[in-house]
Structures are given as structure tokens and as C-alpha cells.
Amino acid sequence: MALRNAVLFFIVSIAVLNGCETLKSSKPIGPIKEYERLLAGRFDADYIGTDNCLSACHFHDKLKRDLDASTMGAQLSKSSGLPLVNCESCHGPGSLAVAGLTPEKVAEDLKAGKRTKCAYDTLIDLNNLPPQAKSLICLKCHTANATFNLHNWNAGAHSVNDVSCSDCHNIHKGPDMIVRNSEMADMCERCHQEIKAEFSLPSHHPVPEKKIFCNNCHNPHGSGNEKSLIKSSVKQTCTKCHAEKEGPFVFEHADNTEDCLTCHRPHGSVNNNLLNVSLPFLCLQCHPVHRTSSTSAAEGKGAFNTRCTDCHSQIHGTDLPSASGNGRFTQ
Fold it and tell me: Alpha carbon of 162 to those of 26, 64, 128, 169, 255: distances in Å?
């Protein structure tokens, strides 16, 4: 019986380990050959260079000029020694797209008032790619250079929720493809509507006023921290600006020291100072009510505090004891 149990235990253990190994192994989201075609374009097409692509019809000359004038086009070139970036780097090999386009056809279309178009269906269908595949086209270059802020992209909240690079960055926008701070809130709020509503509340961080910006607290390209925070904890992120609240203090506010969200809402609140609940009710969630003085309390005539911080002004922590010698956060 003991031998039988041992054999059964061994078989079950092997099955469990095999199951774990299966969970750890990566799986393509589609047939590998088809996925390669999505990213690399037609396997029967050849790379012919941007100049040859454009000389066939000149339909995309302005887009090419914008790319050449951009930070990416200027730095990533033959002269820089970094990877060459041109139209075919993103759109795939272009030989089939311009096949049959002759100067005579271009001239004929021009007379008819038409623009000669290449065969777009032979290029990578960027508009209909899965978001993760679309981002991989960018990551082909942007994980091979010094773009350190993309190391967490694939596991980040945006990638997991089907947001691609081109949802935020317009490659053909012009010389500067970086999202400007003045544009950031409007861009982020297209998806984060509930956060936009919180910034409309009476007490809020000055994001709508464009005094601080989303990336002051969050890393849009992914982070190993909760909510894509730029620091490893909420407190470390908050105290980048609110350094006076960082501590450590001789008298600290118990378990609230490490998590600002215990008392505050980060984006906006109907209460002053971004509080979750108005005073004194916020404090009463943990502390029993007391009267303003022992004398009046003994007489039964004491008044309740309107706001706890009227007396306990150093509520985040202090190095000084109160008049009684205890840590009452009064001075």
C-alpha cells in the first residue's frame, strides 16, 4: 500500500510539474508563419529602398520629408551608424507595391487629374494589425537602442489592454514625434474618462491647468510598479513633490505612513486637500471622538472639534512632542 501511494504521488507530481511548465511556455497569438508575414510583409517582395519607392509615384514625398526632419529620421541614418530607418522599415518590402508603375502611367494619371497610387495591399496592413503586433514593428528598433523606458512595455498596462505605440505617437506628424506635455492630458483622457471626471472635482491636482502632467506620476510605457507609477510605491511617487511629508519622523502616523491613498484621492475629490472623506469623519474612521478639553468634558459641556487638524496640524508626522510630552501631532 505504501509503495502504491508513493507511485501515485510521483505520477501526480510529474503531472503538476508538466502543467506548470506548459503555463510558463510562450504561445503565439496566431500561426507563426502568418504572424511573421504580419510583421515582415510579403515574403515574395524585395526591399528596393525609399528613393525607388517614392520615385515611382511621388505620392508620399511630404511624408518622407517629415520623417527625414524628425528626430528619428535625422539620428537613425547611415551617417549616424545606427540602424537605417526608412519607409520599408515599417511598411515592409516595396517591390510589389510599385511593380508596373512607369513614368508613362504617372504622366497619364496626371493628365487625368489623378494621383498614381501604389498597391497598398502588398504592404504591411498597419491599420488592421493586432495592437501588440503593431507595437512590435516599433520595438524592432526601440529595444535595440538606448530606449530604456520601453523595457517594461510588453508587460505594461497599455500593451496588455491593446494599446499600441501609434495610438499615442504619430510617426508622420512632423519633426517632433514626442507627445508634448500640453497635449498629454487630452490624449490620456480619451481613454481614461473616469480620471478626466475626477480632475473636474473642486479639489484636484492641477493637471487641467497644465501645471503638472500625467507622466509626473505614471510611466506610460510600462512600469514594474502598481498603476504604472514611476516610483516603487505611492508614497515615493507623492513625496517627489511633497517632500515635507516624507519623513521619517519621531512621531509617525501609524500605518498611514506608507500609503497616502489611505486618506487622499490622487486625482480629485469633493473634499479639501484631496481627502477621501471630509473632516472630522475621515479621522473618526480610526479614532474615537473626544471633547476639546478635560475640564469641559468633566462638566459635560465640551464641544466637539470641527476639524481635527485645527489642533493636530502636523498630521503627517512630527519630530516634536506635544505639551503633554506625547506624540499628538500638535507641533
Answer: 18, 28, 13, 15, 37
Q: How far is CA 167 from the centre of its chain?
A: 12
Residue pair 331/318 in contact (Cβ under 8 Å)? The answer is yes
Q: Mean per-residue pLDDT for 64-82?
A: 70
> What is residue 80's predicted lDDT score, i.e. its pLDDT?
61
Closest CA to 240 of 273, 220, 212: 212
pLDDT of amino acid 297: 45
Average pLDDT of span 261-287: 90
pTM of the prediction?
0.76
Closest CA to 168 of 209, 124, 206, 135: 135
- What is d(CA 274, CA 199) in angstroms, rounded to the nearest whole number? 11
173 and 243 in contact (C-beta within 8 Å)?
Answer: no
First-to-last C-alpha distance (Å) of the chain: 73
Number of other CB atoms surrounding residue 198 within 10 Å: 18
Q: For residues 331 and 318, what is the distance between their CA atoms, to the nearest angstrom? A: 7
Q: In this model, does residue 302 exceed pLDDT 50?
A: no
- Give residue 118's pLDDT band: very low, low, confident or very high (50, 70, 90): confident
Question: What does the alpha-carbon distance between residue 123 and residue 114 come to, in Å, rounded to a whole number?
Answer: 21
Give the Cα separation of 185 and 197 in Å (integer). Answer: 12
Using DSSP's 3-state secondary structure scheme, residue 21 falls into helix
How far apart, in whole angstroms, are the C-alpha atoms of residue 136 and residue 157?
16
pLDDT at 92: 87
Q: What was the pLDDT predicted at 241?
A: 92
Q: Quick check: 212 and 230 in contact, CB under 8 A?
A: no
CA-to-CA distance for 145 and 81, rounded, in angstroms? 12
Helix 50-57 to helix 61-69 angle (10° resolution) is: 150
The reply to whether omega before 220 is within 30° of 0 (cis) is: no
**Helix (H), strand (E) counts: the chain:** 14, 4
